[in-house]
Amino acid sequence: MSPDDTPPVDDGSDPRESVRTRVLVIGGGIMGSGIAAQAALAGFPVTVVDVSEELARKGAAQAARALEHAERKGALPEGAREAAVARIDAGIGLRRADGAQIVVEAATERLDLKRQIFREVESIAPPTALLASNTSSLPITSIAEALADPGRLVGIHFFNPVLQMDLVEIIPGFTTRPDITERAHDFARRLGKTVVASRDSPGFVTTRALAVLVNEAAWMLYEGVATKEDIDAAYRLGFHHPMGPFQLVDLVGIDTAVAILDVLWDGFRDSKYRVCPLLRQMVSARQLGRKSGRGFYDYPGARP
Ligand SMILES: NC(=O)c1ccc[n+]([C@@H]2O[C@H](COP(=O)([O-])OP(=O)(O)OC[C@H]3O[C@@H](n4cnc5c(N)ncnc54)[C@H](O)[C@@H]3O)[C@@H](O)[C@H]2O)c1
Questions:
Q1: In which order are the strands placed within the sheet that holds 88-92?
Q2: Is pLDDT above 50 for 246?
Q3: Which end of the chain is less crowded, N or C, counting CB atoms within 10 A of the terminal residue's CB?
Q4: CA 63 to CA 33: how far, in whole Å?
């Protein structure tokens, strides 16, 4: 990319700074690919890494597809897609953190894995690099515990699909330094996102709200208060939600919802986070939602 290319997100700051700031995205799945697309669109050179070359390339290809989709919808200025795609590169191994000024981890939601990733990244990335986790439920302070300097880590929680969702939740851990949190806000602004700030409380703001919404709907179904179709219609038509809670949890994954409720239960020990047994039964039966082909609804075309 030439320094004359103008990034589509104009927040009044010097676009050449983005050109110089390399972003490393760890994990090329649903979220990592979206974050890579968004950062590239804002003018950052981006590297996506995953556990294999193939998965990293898939992540970069998925980022390119997300950009194509945005272009088709008329959401991008002319030439923005090509320029963004050219800024995305795929690789393997955390060695690629060498020289990265911003590292966003979007790997599988496991505390031990995230700790191990950041322990390694800390020893490779420049000491000035911003280290961020996209975790949707794990305590930032617990992930940061693995670092020699836990003050460097902050939570930057993106939403799916990243290019379409305006919101980013920023979560400083108990130990996060204020300058690191400020840099996270600056990065999110450069990506054109609106930020809500949350303390490092279990489930932050959004994940906690989502978990309770879905769990309450499951309890109502379990108790026979109404059918799933009627509960979904009540949320859609009564509250203007774009989809009902069962449609939503089928998208998120019922296993993910249960894991989040368990994090809330562990964090608060409050009975309002008691998982509805129906959700656990569905996980045992591998009825996980869209990704397994069956959840509250059937998805015949989805991969089993
Ligand atoms: N899916 C969502 O709607 C959503 C929304 C917000 C946040 N999140 C969070 O984002 C993170 C990723 O979620 P996702 O839905 O993209 O998952 P995903 O399963 O689609 O992708 C995770 C990727 O991480 C890779 N990975 C695992 N170990 C790795 C390692 N050591 N190094 C590099 N890559 C590794 C996996 O191979 C996989 O490609 C999780 O922390 C999740 O909680 C997800």
A1: 88-92, 46-50, 23-26, 102-105, 130-133, 153-157, 167-172, 194-197
A2: yes
A3: C
A4: 5
The reported pLDDT for the residue numbered 15 is 59
| 3-state SS class at 260 | helix
pTM (predicted TM-score): 0.90
Per-residue pLDDT tens digits for 68-80: 999 999 999 999 9
Task: Measure the CA–CA gap between 157 and 260, rounded to whole angstroms.
Answer: 14
User: In the chain, where does DSSP find H-type helix?
Assistant: 15-20, 30-41, 53-72, 80-86, 111-124, 140-144, 178-190, 206-222, 228-239, 245-252, 254-268, 277-284
Pocket of ligand 1 (CB under 6 A): 26-32, 49-51, 55, 106-109, 113, 117, 134-136, 157-160
Domains of the chain: 15-197 (3.40.50.720), 206-292 (1.10.1040.10)
- d(CA 237, ligand 1 centre) in Å: 32
